Amino acid sequence: MNIVSKRDFYAGLLMIVLGAGAAVEGQHYNIGTLRQMGPGFIPVALGVVLLLIGIAIAAGSFTGEGDKGEAEMPTRPDWRGWLCIILGPLLFMILGKYAGLIPATFSCVFVSALGDRKSTLKGAFLIAAGITAMGVLLFSYLLQVPFPLIRGLQS
Fold first, then answer.
1. What residues contact residue 93 under an 8 Å CB cut-off, 6+ apart?
2. What pTM was estimated for this model as a whole?
């Protein structure tokens, strides 16, 4: 059997490893039942789902057409993309602790969006504002997660 799409094979393999890891690690917690789920139920369930999706993706790499641009390696690494994608979640963690949900979410999405070379400042701003508004609506008002919107303004 020949691997037609190396990208799909490695992506599927990575999903299999992560899914199996989550399923095994989640079993260290009480799984519970469907009626009364324990803290290990969701990690195990999501790990199994991720594992099955990974198997499907990896199996699909042996059939069909390969990606035409897969044989071409980039001339140089895209350091801007890597830096922005890593810096976004770091900003969320830092600003979430010291500034609140709104600045943390906005900065995470804004900086991560700038990792794409085709993204403009206006586009990154608009997507960050939209995701921030949806995040505030979902987490603060609908789910009522106790995370201050802006630290220092709330008592």
1. 104
2. 0.60
